[in-house]
Write a structure and sequence with these properties.
Blueprint (H helix, E strand, L loop, with lengths): L10 E6 L2 H18 L6 E6 L11 H4 L3 H12 L5 E5 L11 E6 L7 E4 L12 E3 L3 H10 L4 E3 L5 H9 L5 E5 H6 L7 E2 L14 E6 L3 H8 L4 H17 L7 E8 L2 E9 L6 E8 L5 H13 L2 H4 L6
Parallel strand pairs: 1-2, 1-3, 6-7, 6-8
Antiparallel strand pairs: 3-10, 4-10, 5-8, 5-9, 11-12, 12-13
Helix pairs in contact: 8-9
């Protein structure tokens, strides 16, 4: 008879069950265990099948938006079935339930997009079919290459690469950070972020827990990366002031600059014909200049662009 005491994990991390999401959860577990001196088995990974992973034949904006990545994890977190949720920050809707907060952010990985199927935007064949379901990627591409045709491309990395291999499109875009976390960086060519502006929050893993869970908050705070948090909060502030949703073609580049940060933001009409951009510098945590930037962008945007932002 085995009289060994039954062991229970100290901490339960909820995650989507896609390969990339699981890789992010594994990285989070490793950082938590290193910070607290725990064995790996003391942090349990709890996978959930998200609604956004179930329906792959329609754009996310048509079937419920970014909440489809978070609603199952939100339910489990609210019920106490997990202690924290691991998110790709760019997939989290701007307005979150008051019961939750981001208690930690992992160091930001590569924020660039990677182009798969061509070495550069200029190298995409004339009239090529480009697979993407991201309004930002579609609009930014059409702004630079109006000769191209955009078709809906959803699914995890392997699914999208399979669609590309099957000839459903000539090229597609993937997040460079995601490819790196999957050990597949060779698959795509990262695009210069000054020429091809990335998504808000891209490359950041955000860890969310209940506001009233002081233990989980303290556990996560030990691995919070201040630089990533400052950038993420600024970029999400811009989305909030713009009224940005998963329908909104918005690109953002926020970087440290001397003792401040500099943010470059670009709004597009969905067909790429209208492009309006602006830049602002601000101190960490001071979001008033970001609100002013949002107002300025919306004031200069064409109606066909502004109508896709709730702040209009």
């Amino acid at each position: 008879m085995n009289d060994a005491p039954e062991t229970h994990p100290k901490f339960r991390l909820g995650t989507r069950n896609s390969p990339l999401a699981m890789a992010q959860a594994v990285e989070t577990r490793e950082r938590l265990c290193a910070a607290h001196g725990w064995a790996l088995e003391e942090v349990e990974l709890v996978p959930v099948l998200a609604s956004g992973d179930k329906v792959l034949d329609r754009p996310l904006a048509e079937i419920g938006g970014k909440a489809l990545w978070t609603k199952e994890l939100d339910a489990w977190l609210g019920e106490g079935r997990i202690d924290a949720a691991v998110h790709s920050a760019k997939d989290v809707e701007t307005i979150r339930p008051d019961a939750f907060h981001f208690a930690a952010h992992l160091p930001r990985a590569d924020r660039r997009d990677a182009l798969v199927g061509a070495d550069s935007i200029a190298a995409i064949p004339q009239g090529a079919t480009v697979g993407t379901s991201a309004p930002r990627r579609a609009a930014q591409l059409l702004n630079l290459r109006p000769d191209c045709k955009v078709v809906t491309f959803r699914g995890n990395v392997a699914t999208r690469l399979g669609k590309l291999e099957a000839g459903e499109a000539d090229v597609t875009f993937l997040a460079a950070a995601g490819l790196e976390r999957l050990g597949q960086s060779e698959v795509g060519a990262p695009l210069d972020q000054n020429d091809w502006v990335p998504a808000a929050a891209q490359g950041v893993i955000a860890l969310e827990c209940r506001v009233d869970d002081a233990n989980a908050t303290a556990v996560l705070a030990a691995i919070d990366d201040v630089a990533a948090r400052v950038e993420l909060e600024a970029e999400r502030a811009l989305l909030a002031h713009l009224g940005g949703t998963c329908h909104s073609p918005i690109a953002v580049l926020c970087e440290p600059s001397d003792d401040a940060l500099t943010m470059r933001a670009v709004l597009f009409s969905p067909d790429g014909s209208d492009r309006v951009e602006g830049t602002v510098s601000f101190s960490a945590g001071d979001h008033a200049p970001i609100a002013a930037l949002a107002a300025d962008l919306l004031s200069r945007a064409a109606p066909e662009t502004a109508e896709h932002f709730g702040g209009a």
